[in-house]
Design a protein that fits this description.
- By secondary structure, the chain is α+β, with helices and mostly antiparallel strands.
- The protein has two domains: 9-96, Outer Surface Protein A, domain 3 (Alpha-Beta Complex), CATH 3.90.930.12; 99-180, Alpha-Beta Complex (Outer Surface Protein A, domain 3), CATH 3.90.930.12.
- Helices cover 18% and strands 41% of the residues.
- It contains two helices and 14 strands.
- The chain has helices at residues 75-96, 154-166; strands at residues 9-10, 16-20, 23-28, 31-36, 41-51, 54-59, 65-70, 99-106, 111-115, 118-122, 129-131, 137-143, 146-151, 177-180.
- The strands form four sheets. Strands 1-7-5-6 form a four-stranded antiparallel β-sheet.
- A hairpin with a 2-residue loop joins β2 (16-20) and β3 (23-28).
- It starts with 8 loop residues before the first strand and ends in a 17-residue tail after the last strand.
Length: 197
């Protein structure tokens, strides 16, 4: 059994879950998400009850946990088992607390600002770069050198943050560019010219 896959996902209060036609629908305070799950795995709503042998899962449409099980022990099924459980857990986390990515801009004259919903980057090019976040993702610029990307869908938040970083990845000599908040940029030493004497 997959160590991750066999762990049931707990549904917090205020989150609605529906499983129908090979899809999982999750709705919570931060939004709605849906996922088409792979045919090699099945999802079930249920309840966990304690017993002498540990926790026992009982299927129940009004339950507060989601169990992910695989159809067989084929290699593909095993690899998808843990992935699907993680995706389900990310959906539940996303609609309750949401996900956030923070980016920092370094460089003289480099800055970011908001234009309605879009992020406008001034990162050393002749023209400014304007990037519009996808539906369900919001961007904030608390100060000219910080961008905060928020949303319920972890993949979309990560994708938009990656697009912002790609506008001007940090260069290795002076470290100028857009980077993730805790990203360590490997620096290179520039050419040093020895004075000939």
């Amino acid at each position: 059994m997959s160590r991750i896959g066999k762990q049931p996902v707990t549904i917090p209060a205020g989150v609605k879950v529906k499983i129908a036609d090979g899809k999982l629908f999750v709705e919570g305070p931060k939004g709605k998400l849906e996922l088409s799950f792979h045919k090699n795995v099945s999802l079930q709503l249920g309840k966990l009850t304690r017993s002498d042998n540990g926790n026992v899962f009982t299927p129940d449409a009004t339950g507060n946990v989601i169990s992910v099980s695989r159809m067989d022990d084929e290699r593909l099924s095993k690899s998808i088992h843990g992935l699907m459980r993680t995706l389900v857990n990310n959906m539940v986390t996303g609609v309750t607390t949401g996900f956030e990515k923070r980016l920092k801009i370094e460089g003289v004259g480099y800055a970011a600002k908001m234009d309605k919903k879009a992020v406008v980057l001034s990162v050393g090019f002749a023209n400014q770069i304007k990037l519009e976040p996808p539906t369900g993702v919001t961007a904030e610029v608390p100060d000219p050198n910080t961008i905060v990307v928020k949303g319920a869908d972890k993949q979309m938040v990560g994708q938009f943050a990656a697009e912002l970083r790609l506008a001007r990845p940090p260069e290795p000599y002076q470290g100028k560019g857009v980077r993730y908040e805790n990203e360590v940029v490997r620096r290179k030493e520039g050419k040093s010219f020895a004075s000939g004497g």
